[in-house]
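can u pls check wat happens w/ flavin mononucleotide
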Amino acid sequence: MRKAFDKLTSGMYLVGTKADKEAGCIVNTFEQVASKPELVVIAINKENYTCTQIRKSKKFNVTVLKEDTDKEIINTFGFSSSEFNDKYKAYNKKYDLLGLPYIENDMVALFSVRVKEEIDANTHIVFMGEVSESVLLSEDRPMTYDYYRTVKNGITPPKASTYQKPKAVSGYKCDVCGYIYRGEELPIDYICPICGQTHFTKICE
Ligand SMILES: Cc1cc2nc3c(=O)[nH]c(=O)nc-3n(C[C@H](O)[C@H](O)[C@H](O)COP(=O)(O)O)c2cc1C
């Protein structure tokens, strides 16, 4: 059931990399999977420019967004392509020890990672890598994916691993007698053929 997936907890992260060009995108799929050595994974859509740049450079970094991160950062890095855009231009970027760009403001931690393995996950590539540097940037609270969706009313684009297609409208239920009108659009001024009133609630399946 789709709602079960909403119970998965994750954070909000900015992945940065560079091969031919600096690239970066928002992800909520970053996880530590071992501690000796410190191994982590990220899942990046094959169509994201960040994916092609990580495959070439074999390295990436991840910064953890703080709870009140400026929404513009999420809009810039989560909803446009680095192929046509210098996403870092508007921000005071820095470079980690791997020579990769990151934004320090609005972030609470930085991890620099060398890729050890790529796993094909159909639409995505799962990159597993070893952390070469980890830095605490601030003591602020990190933003969770749940906070982004429920408090910030944030949305998730189709290329995200956790994207859920909006449900299609299948009909309208009469608020008084429960009669169901089947169809995507309720005709204007439609009157319930059973009880004669005009209040209906959308049914999505
Ligand atoms: C909340 C949120 C979560 C996302 N999670 C992922 C993810 O886990 N993996 C991914 O590949 N893209 C994810 N995305 C989508 C990318 O950030 C987006 O497609 C971006 O524009 C790609 O930029 P690029 O082409 O420069 O790499 C997410 C976006 C948002 C807003």
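The longest strand covers residues 107-121.
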